[in-house]
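Obj.: predict assembly geometry.
Materials: sequence records (below).
Method: joint structure prediction, all chains together.
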Amino acid sequence: MKRMFANTVEFDFDRKLQRPSPAELRDLYRNDDEAARVEATRRGLWIAVIVYVLYSATDLLLIPDVAAYTIMARLTVGIVALAVFETQLHLDTGIKWLDRTSAMALISGYAVWIFPALRTVHTESLSYYMIFGAIFMMGANLFFSFRFVLSVISSSVILATFLLSLFAFWPTDIYALAFSAFYVSCFVFTSYVNWKLNRERYHVFLNALEAQIQQREATERGEALLRMSNTDYLTGLENRRAVDQRLRNYWKEWQVNGRGFAAILVDVDFFKKYNDFYGHQEGDRCLIHIATTIKEAIEPLGGSIGRYGGEEFIVLAQFDMKERVAFLAERIRSTVEQLSLLHEERRDGTSIVTVSVGAAFTREQSGAKLEKIIHEADRALYGAKASGRNCTRLFDPNDPNSSDESENIAALLKIAINQNLVSLVYQPIEEMTSKRRDAVEALMRLRTLDGSVIPPSLFIPIAERTGMIIELGRWVIRTTCHDLLADNHVQSASINVSPIQLKMPGFAASVAAILYETGVSGSRLAFEITEGLEMEMHSDVLRCINDLKTLGIRIWLDDFGTGFAGLSWLRLIDFDMVKIDRSFLHGSSTPRGKAMLQDIVGLIRNRGPKILVEGVETEKQLALLREFNIDYAQGYHVGRPSSAQTYRDATNIARPSAAPTPSA
Ligand code: C2E
Ligand code: MG
Ligand code: MG
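Observations (raw structure tokens):
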């Protein structure tokens, strides 16, 4: 088998996102929030230029003789700076160049003003006015948000310009000393504050970045948790929780917008056997392989798949046209079949892994409920399994076995024992050589509250599906022991037992309790097992059969030839008797049919158990059984099923002569 694993959700909850290196951090910092910084610088430059031009008024007041030049200089620098800035903005040159332009504007704003101002005759006024130069320095270091290096370069150029201008303007030594000291300390102080501000900004940026990373880690963790809680750990498909949510959403959409949907249940045939034989690891791989293949096949058709239980998947699709649903269901089945995964243990004539598929879809009906559609898909799946598996079934509301009638029968079965709605009839079995009829088969009957009869072919499968067969089965054993065996009205009785009962833990113990309670020996009972729906031969079943044999109970194989597993069962279990299905006897009127019956008889005889042929309706058929040396016969010709009272009446007349038991 091809090995493959699903992409299941794996998340390392201790995983930390990688932090950027110092170089990357610097880059990130430089580019951090560039749009906001561009906008702030632009606003700053416009304000600075306007204020700068407005200072023309102080020029007129303090240095009126050169004011015309200084005002011209102010206007020129202001207009050029704004024009260059706006052009750069338009060309999207980035904050780095915009900052440089702003720094250049500050330097030239100071220089272009101071040199014409130095020519004034109002030297005293100018000596005071010179103090305003410090504002340019403050602008470079504090008003704009330049990087430290740019701030220091521009403010030191302003300082140098001032110092240079002192050579042209030297009122007194004291003045030169005091103003130089003031300018230098202003430079040192504002540069220091700028350095602190930049550091602060960087730390704020680092904290914000760390917070962002932690937030991302938390979000990733949250998303992974959500994904995990909705994902099946093995196959990586949606799990039941997610499927239920999807179902609720589809249901709501159907109720509100009328958009219908289909629910398709997919069950892997004989998966337990696969697991037992190939091992759990291989079983897991098989499930993963099937899951991924179905997913790939159905997604283009508009379906989604989830894991619904152990080996059960569910496909949902938002359409409810019968043909489309049938097409999708068949695609699922054939896709798995085409995988040709070997499954040699199933012994039903197929040796690859297959699936049974049951589908249901939304339709107008009264009292519609979400659970009902799944229930219907489940019933369709049950139908697919009952039809031999590896097939698809669509839920058919008109089929009595899957319709509301079956709901009614299920409800009826629950009250059947208490309300005396079940009863037993007993059909005689004839030992061919002695012609004695002292064994019977117990057959269950069910009637409704208004007295009409429901055939076993209808209610037995429903009892098996709902699990009611467990309780009914116990009732049959107890009633047969009590009604016929305890008082020796018949010597032995055979009872039909469903494989579901055999799988039930404690079944053999409950039989032992009934035998003890009724005082009947186990050797007077035979259990008939039909290869029915649950024909997988679990080890629990084999163990239970052994326990029953220890109680002395004989095990018969019923309806031989009608199912798939008869032959392999014959190999696995040491049956005391095999009952050949009546269809073989009824078909024996043709030479071919007769040869077939003879072959079957030969085959069973080779294995050792006694043989009973069912459905003997004519003397001719009985003669044929004699010809074939059959051990026992049963059928309407031998005796119709009748009530316990008939047998009691018969023995009361015939007593005390007790007849021998059939040896099988
Ligand atoms: P089965 O065990 O093979 O029982 C024989 C069936 O063949 C009975 O049908 C019987 O009435 C019918 N039959 C007997 N002789 C003739 C004949 O000569 N010709 C024809 N055409 N039919 C004949 P019934 O009673 O309808 O039971 C049907 C099936 O229901 C049984 O088949 C058995 O598998 C199941 N069943 C009946 N009672 C029980 C029960 O208590 N427990 C379980 N688990 N299954 C039961
Ligand atoms: Mg039977
Ligand atoms: Mg039978």
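Conclusions so far: The first strand starts at residue 262 and ends at 268.
To do: check interface contacts against the pulldown list.
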